[in-house]
Design brief:
Order of helices and strands: EEEHEHEEEHEEHEE
Radius of gyration: 18 Å
Distance between the termini: 14 Å
Largest sheet: 5 strands, parallel
Helix content: 10-25%
Length: 190
């Protein structure tokens, strides 16, 4: 089985990485209580936090050198960026590293209203990566439209978890198997 990863993995934010709509469920300003991990509070102390498996998924991608992107159509981009800046991601399990700001995991941020096609065209333009090397996780089926570009789409039904993440990777690998070339002697080489 292939363990190859896409060069870029993108995530929607609302109901994909956290369990709310940042533009309707949160009232700024946002703040964090001291060094609390994976929780930011709004003006009324309503909590914003990543789903349980998200921190380890982000660590896994970062360790593998995968470009991580946020692609969100929110009408509150400032609140989304603020939440990502304030959220402290716990270190990788078993690590003695310090917590990191969530925003530091993201190499690209496309956070603004509009079609996800626009988000991915900009990601392609900025990174130079082919659409076929992109995997996108989102909770809204309408955003599957990015597949017109060649991006692999994975629907997130109840927040991103390990199972959904692995399902998305499996689908991407199925569509983009490693190329195997036969040499003149008849053995295979990658």
């Amino acid at each position: 089985m292939s363990t190859r990863l896409p060069k870029l993995v993108a995530f929607d934010l609302d109901y994909t990485l956290w369990d709310l709509w940042i533009d309707t469920h949160v009232t700024g300003p946002l703040h964090r209580n001291k060094d609390t991990l994976n929780e930011v509070l709004d003006k009324y102390n309503e909590s914003v936090s990543f789903y349980n498996h998200v921190p380890q998924i982000l660590h896994r991608l970062r360790a593998a050198g995968v470009t991580i992107a946020a692609a969100s159509r929110t009408s509150a981009p400032t609140s989304a960026r603020s939440a990502l800046t304030l959220l402290l991601v716990p270190p990788m399990e078993g690590s003695k590293d310090e917590p990191m700001k969530a925003i530091d995991f993201f190499d690209q941020l496309e956070i603004y209203p509009g079609s996800k096609l626009t988000h991915f065209k900009k990601l392609h333009q900025k990174t130079g990566m082919p659409y076929s090397e992109m995997l996108f996780f989102d909770d809204e089926l309408r955003n599957k439209e990015v597949e017109k570009l060649g991006v692999t789409f994975c629907l997130v039904k109840k927040g991103l978890d390990d199972r959904t993440f692995e399902r998305g990777l499996a689908e991407w690998r199925k569509r983009h198997p490693e190329e195997v070339f036969e040499d003149p002697v008849g053995s295979t080489a990658m």
